[in-house]
Every structure is written in C-alpha cells, then in structure tokens.
Amino acid sequence: MKKLFAILALMGVLTLGSVPVMAQEEAQTEPAATEVAVEEGGIHKEIKTKFIEGSAGFMSLVAIALVIGLAFCIERIIYLSLAQVNTKKLMKSIEENLEKGDLEGAKAVCRNTRGPVASICYQGLMRADQGLDVVERSVTAYGGVQAGYLEKGCSWITLFIAMSPSLGFLGTVIGMVQAFDNIQQAGDISPTVVAGGMKVALITTIFGLIAALILQVFYNYILSKIEELTSDMEDSSITLLDMITKYNLKYNK
Predict the structure, then answer these.
(1) How far apart are alpha carbons 162 and 184 in whole angstroms?
(2) Measured between alpha carbons, how far is residue 139 from residues 102, 111, 188 in Å?
(3) Could you report the per-residue pLDDT of 70-121, keeping only the tens digit for each?
(4) Per residue in 164-196, is it b (16+ CB within 10 Å) or e — as a string?
(5) Are 73 and 5 in contact (CB under 8 A)?
(6) For helices 103-111 and 116-126, what crossing angle results, to 10°?
(7) Which residues have C-beta within 8 Å of that of residue 208, sequence separation ≥ 6?
(8) Residues 95, 125: contact at Cβ < 8 Å?
(9) What is the pTM for the complete model shown?
(10) Contact in structure between 229 and 150 (CB atoms under 8 Å)
C-alpha cells in the first residue's frame, strides 16, 4: 500500500506539473516577481515542448520508469529512516537491565523499540540461557534476515536505472530509422529532411539519461543508509554478546 500511495502521489505531482501556466492577473505586481514567473513559465513550456517533440510514446515510457523508480526509492528511504534508532541509548538501556539481573526488562526494551537492531538484540536475549554459542548463531542468522529486509526492493530500483537509458536509446534508434525513411522518401540528404528524426533520437536519449541519473542519486543514498544500518547491527551484535558474557559470569558464580 505504501508503494501504491507513493506512485499515486508522484503521478499527481507530474499531472499538476503538466497543467498550462495560467495567465498573469491584471493587477500590477512587482517587476522582479513578474520576471521570475515569466521565466518559470518559459522553462515549463520548453520542457513540455521537448517532451512532445521527442515522440510522446517513448517519452511517456521513460517518464513512467522514472515515476515508478522514484516510488520505490521513496518507499525504501521511508522504511530505512524509520528503522534507524539511537543505538547507543538502546544498548545502554539493555545493559542497565542486565546489570540488575532483569532479563525480562531488557527484552521489554527491545520489544518496545523499532528497527532491526532491537529485533536482533531481542532474538539474542531470548536465548541468553542456552549458552553463548546458541546466542551467537541466532544473532547471526537473524541479522541476515534483517539485512534482506533492508535491501528489499532495491533490485527494482536498479532495473529502472538500467531501463531508463535503454528506453532512451531505443527511441534514438527509432529516430534514426525515421530519418533514413525521410531521406528515402525525399531522395535527398538535406538537413531539413533528417532534422526531425535526429531531434527525436537526441531528445529521447537526453531524457533517458536524466531519468537514470536521478534514480542513481537516490539509489546511492539508499545504499549508504543500508550500510549505516548494517554497521549498527554488527556493532550491536558484538556488544550484546559481550554483555551476555558478563551477565552469565556475574550471576552464575
């Protein structure tokens, strides 16, 4: 559902962006503000013009790939942002409960904290009475599961990163074919004959590359968030094993 809402929201933004610029009010405004409005309208109109000139069919495919790719990116960014917690504060709360011998209190802290770090610590605490080896295997196995959750959907983002320029290049090839068809029909190789097909070829390539670059920036940001969370999970797992060792040494004497 989150992905669906994100897709609908982004499509709504694009739809609103495609509405023609309304005429300026007759009331006189400040000159600087008027110039900015005119410039913005000119850029908006130019983008729409180039979109149509680049063959609406292929340009729409590139736009759809960009919108869906951004929807996956936004969903991952929201998920990873919610998964991040104050790891130091969490581990300190767990240690305070273990020092008091309150294992159930430490579990409650993990249950009431969101994110993969708390989930891994909870799995380890659940098996704290079964020995350090069992705890270590449990933490390692569950850490792999949580890492899979973090990377969920990233393969789709890479697909749309690769698809956007590919669609642009496909439009390039078709534009070149159109140019040669025009040459064949006209029997002449004049710039006017080939200009239309060449324009389609270049514009689709540009838009495909721009879409891929936008998605690549978001994808790299997502990867950095995943690496940060993975590092926190590894550090917390080691810290938890050390605390369980101290807990067992202290209360088994």
Answers:
(1) 34
(2) 20, 16, 72
(3) 999 999 999 999 998 898 999 999 988 888 888 888 899 999 999 999 999 9
(4) bbebbebbbebbeebbeebeeeeeeeeeebbee
(5) no
(6) 150
(7) 62, 164, 165, 166, 167, 168, 169, 171
(8) no
(9) 0.71
(10) yes
Amino acid letter for position 169? F
Lowest mean pLDDT among 74-78, 88-92, 129-133, 190-194: 190-194
Contact yes or no for 175/204 (Cβ under 8 A): yes
Rounded Cα distance between 204 and 135, Å, is 55
- Judge contact between 62 and 167, C-beta under 8 A: yes
Q: What gap in Å lies between CA 222 and CA 73, rounded to an integer?
A: 8
Q: How far apart are the first and last CA of the chain?
A: 53
Please identify which residue in the block is written with the tokens 């850490």.
143
Provide the angle, in degrees to the nearest 10, between the axes of the packed helices 87-99 and 103-111.
160
pLDDT of residue 4: 39
**From the CA atom positions of the chain, what is the Rg in Å?**
28
Closest CA to 239 of 59, 90, 76: 90
Residues 6+ apart with CB under 8 A from 188: none
Q: What is the DSSP letter of 129?
A: G
Sign of CA dihedral 37, 40, 42, 44: negative
Single-letter amino acid, residue 189: I
In angstroms, the Cα distances linking 102 to 60, 99, 132 are 60, 7, 18
How many whole angstroms separate alpha carbon 5 and alpha carbon 168?
27
